[in-house]
Design a protein that fits this description.
Chain lengths: ~130, ~130
DNA sequence: TATCTGTTATATTATGAATATAACAGATAG
DNA sequence: CTATCTGTTATATTCATAATATAACAGATA
């Protein structure tokens, strides 16, 4: 896999895992229909507990990122998660707001902030075109 | 004060407080040199413990947002926090990245994301001009 | 002198993150 | 049929963090 988990980070393991899998989907490194490792094999690959991986899979399932069939195992949802509704956008704003506030206090202008966002979007686009 | 703390939220109280004070500075609701309430009075105003407020003040002091004089009490730092260096921008990118990844998966295009950021910046600008 | 300030110390409770071990039921390969 | 692998559930333990409670100290102030 493309996973790079830092066991020493203050960021919880299950959050890192969740983020990196979602980023993998956004970048097209894993495509709709692709299988994901079993909770046990992924856990032993990374060197963590089975339950930590299971927790992540449950969260991803709940958000519509993956499907879990008793037979086929774990698969990237071909449909993808539901489109962003107003509630989602509201929570998105709530997450960005403190980042912008701190940036303003540190002298990062709107232009520069938007530029950083554009560069991040390019990070995802470029990878998507490699395939 | 302009504080609105949700004691039921899963977001820790000290994080809410920290964010709202920084947002207050970014919006110009509190200006450089302005005093902040004492740890005890603010704590009793909100209905929380003195140590929770003290923790927030220590974090804000550490980041250069406020100054704590033995005499004058707590004051918004006239200098403000240090300008964003490359390390800060790196952590900023790390914070924005998962938001963008999830947005892409949910069908939010770059344009719309940037538009949301612009609106948030306006949130801060508009308030700043009221004074 | 009494009061308010930030600060420090100590202890307790509650919650969440992560682990360990075990077991169950369904599917699959030998 | 048997053995193995799958996700799932249950239970328990360890550890760190968030939040509280109570107390005390030293400097400044009225």
């Amino acid at each position: 896999m493309f996973l790079n988990i830092n066991l020493e980070s203050s960021e919880p393991i299950y959050i890192q895992l969740q983020h990196q899998i979602i980023e993998g989907i956004a970048k097209g490194r894993i495509s709709p229909g692709d299988p994901l490792p079993s909770v046990r094999s992924l856990a032993s690959d990374i060197g963590i507990n089975l339950h930590t991986v299971n927790k992540v899979y449950q969260l991803l399932k709940q958000d519509g990122y993956i499907l879990i069939h008793r037979q086929k195992g774990v698969v990237i949802n071909p449909e993808g998660p539901p489109k962003a509704d107003e509630e989602y956008k509201q929570s998105l704003r709530a997450n960005i707001r403190p980042l912008i506030a701190a940036s303003i206090c540190r002298g990062i202008e709107e232009e520069e902030f938007l530029q950083i966002c554009k560069e991040l979007f390019n990070e995802f686009k470029e990878e998507g075109e490699k395939k």
